[in-house]
Amino acid sequence: MSLFIKKTAAAIAACIMLGTAVSVQIPPEVSNAAPDEFHDDWLHVNENAEIVDMNDNPVWLTGCNWFGYNVGSQVFDGVWSQNMHKMLNDIADHGFNLLRVPMSTEILLQWKNNEPDTMIKINEYENPELTIEGVQGGTPMYSFDIWNKAVEWCRENGMKIMIDIHSATTASSGHQVPLWYDGNFSTEDWIEALTWFADYYKDDDTVIAIDLKNEPHGKNDGQGMAIWDDSTSPNNWKYAAETCAAAILDINPDLLIMVEGIEVYPKFEEGEDWDSPAVDYSRYPWSPFHGAWWGGNFRGAREYPVDLGEHQSQLVYSPHDYGPLVWQQTWFEKDFTRQTLLDDYWYDTWAFLIEEKISPLLMGEWGGFIDEEHDPTGDNLKWMTLLRDYMIEKRIHHTFWCFNENSGDTGGLVYDNFGKWDEDKYAFVEPSLWQNENGKFISLDHKIKLGQSGNGISLSDYYSGSQQPSTEEKTEPITSSVTAASDITEAPELRIGDANMDGKITIADSTAILQALGNPDKYGLSPQGAINADCCDPGSGVKPSDALSIQKLDAKLISNLPEITE
């Protein structure tokens, strides 16, 4: 039975916008299973629109993209020059806990049917582990066997995997085809490919998510057009996503399902439809559609939310967002700020989903050039900084685009034929990666620490309490605006910031404060929790800024609590 909760979130000083939460299904009770190698790391979405682990602890998916399997290389790009095992180790050592891997329907069906490789771009001398003989210069393994070595090495690194269908047909320009089907592969082929993949890895939680289709798009220009409504039209992305997700989750109900947006959404009035020639253009002098980046438009999700039925707890919406170097959109045609981006584009297009606690978001692609040669005005870096900081504050999951250096309009995290890291770009991305207070990168695996360098910890390490911020300074009891002053007692051991009294200071405490402020009758804090919650300018009572201070601590924007602003 699904539980539906409606609550009001309080505003936080220009950072948390007032909004009303809509229903999010709570999954069946999850057992506190003992950690094991393959079955304890599945994730789901809770009633607060957070992605959580088997123990209902919030997690933060902070990864990067590495393409190649979608373009005809039959392997990650760069394995033609560098050692794949080392590159995967490096990605984990740099703190990325999730790898988004573009695939094609074609390559998955090739593997399913054990069809031969058309080519395979590996350097056999740099990658003896990827040869049949296990020697330098040996015969390359079959591409699916190489892929499974990548899965094995991600597992060893505590790094999880999400694949996406980047295109139906394998091609470097395949992503430009607007739909999940084309002249070579049908919707049925797409579903067959993904259900086979889900079945193959259903007992391996290294693969924790599937992004159903990269960037559905189209503008009714004769090339095909993804729509979003309540119809069963072949090009209705909502209907296709629900159908495909149902087939996948029937096989593995524990996978996270990422659903991207589309490109345009209609401004139509009653009686008009997606068939734009029937639209009275005199009412829409510029366009009858709200535009967006490919895969970025979720306006349809407000009126027609994706319905996964009993598996609703596995749904995550996944927008893409880019800067002016990819395309000079209208929202960049001013001295833009976070607020103008929210007003002009982000909020109504995708940000409302996280602001109003409708769904968690995973920003599947974001990134770009930040060097002066490519970005002489600095506008691209400005946009990237605004988006990065917004994602940190709102705890938006993300996979940076991209590891590859051969992405023409963004560049990558590496250069010199995949041999060196761009330290400036990495330094920019690094604050948005999940870390504890000591700068240790946090795995999504309960047993395995992230990476090989010693600078990573496991999920169990993180939630064991070792990341607890120092609270040596004790304060006197504080009168709270949530709990009556008569109910406040002397704190035997003040743990400032621990509003929910679970012995830790996490985003869950911020949520507890907002819930208590929005609906104190239902979500009131305990007397001691109210004392702990007053962590911004102690003595001023529990207020929205306390929740913000906890978020800032979690994002490492401040080093300890309480935060003094006055």
Concise overview:
This protein is 26% helix and 10% strand.
Helix proportion: 25-40%
Number of strands: 18
Chain-averaged pLDDT: 86
First-residue to last-residue Cα separation: 47 Å
Tell me the radius of gyration: 24 Å
Spans of 5+ residues with little confidence (pLDDT < 50)? 1-35, 466-493
**How many helices in DSSP terms?**
14
Shape: globular
Which structural category do the helix and sheet elements fall into? alpha/beta
Q: Strand sequence of the main sheet, in spatial order?
A: 12-9-8-7-6-5-14-13
Characterize the structure shown.
- With 566 residues, the chain is of the alpha/beta class.
- The strands form six sheets. The chain has an eight-stranded parallel beta sheet with strand order 12-9-8-7-6-5-14-13. A two-stranded antiparallel sheet has the order 1-2. A two-stranded antiparallel ribbon has the order 3-4.
- Helix 5 links the parallel strand 8 and strand 9.
- The radius of gyration is 24 Å and the shape is globular.
- The N terminus is likely disordered.
Keyword list:
566 residues, alpha/beta, two-stranded antiparallel sheet, 14 helices, 26% helix, 10% strand, globular, disordered N terminus
